[in-house]
Amino acid sequence: MRPGTSVLVLVMLFPALIECQTCSSNTYLQSSGCVNCPTNSVSAPGSTLVTQCICRAGYNGPHGGPCSPCTFVSATLTCGGTCACSPMTGTGGTITDGPGAYQYLASCWWKITSSAVISWRFTMFDTEADFDKLTIYACTNTLCGTGKVLLGKCSGTSGSGWQGEVPPSNSIWSSQPASGRGTLSLEFYSDSSMNFEGFEGTWSIPNEAIGVCSSPTLCVADSYYSFTGTVGCQPCSSHSSSAAGSMAIEACVCNA
Ligand SMILES: [Ca+2]
Questions:
Q1: Ligand 1 centroid vs 192 CA: distance in angstroms?
Q2: Contacts of 232 (CB under 8 A, 6+ apart)
Q3: Residue 19 pLDDT more than 60?
Q4: pTM for the full predicted model
């Protein structure tokens, strides 16, 4: 038998062995065989190129790696004083003096700190004009002691037309983090008579700051990453939903 004949026979008898070696998921085919995708990347079964390894949800980088963790910006809320409040870390929330009329001689403060711009929008405002005030500051540091810029002193009632120095209900107030972190500060004081409903508003940081990760595998909610057919984020079928970052169609679960 001439050299090479045995290989030829093998190819003829078992073509699948040689022509169709299929690598399992999260690996890809090289001349040496199936090798693992770079760290924190995944691939579909049958991948033959390192560029078919894509960063898994929560990681970001070129196809084929390297993949580094997504960075997510959040804000930290601290608060204190006579109003009920809950410190938190997140990307948005509601601040209010509390349910019902505010107390006499209320003295409350909230500070929201982030490296992103923080926006504040009133949803309700009702205080005794000129006597019970909410003051908003933007600061370039966490403590809001120095570098403090007065954005507005608000008092009055939105329902009967804004009075005093109350802003329009749709105005947006923003911190301006010059470098590093910025703080939006709210202070509320009332005097010893005439307590009204108070105030409520929402704060948030912008979406682009929340997820600066452009990982192709970070699919939005109600979609999943498809490795077959049209590769990429695909919507769940109607009447089903999934969590953001889902990596398989099985993550789409029928709605209740
Ligand atoms: Ca009052």
A1: 6
A2: 216, 225, 226
A3: no
A4: 0.58
Indicate the pLDDT class of residue 206, thresholds 50, 70 and 90. confident
- Number of domains the chain contains: 3
Cα–Cα distance, 171 to 136 (Å, whole number): 13
- d(CA 189, ligand 1 centre) in Å: 9
The residue among 113, 107, 110 whose CA lies nearest residue 180 is 113
What pLDDT does 30 receive? 93
Predicted local confidence at residue 43, as pLDDT = 84
Judge if 54 and 121 occupy the same domain. no
Segments forming the whole domain that contains residue 192: 75-209
- Enumerate residues with CB within 5 Å of ligand 1 (an ion): 128, 131-132, 190-191, 194
Residue 214 has which token pair? 């452009």
CA 145–ligand 1 middle distance (angstroms): 26
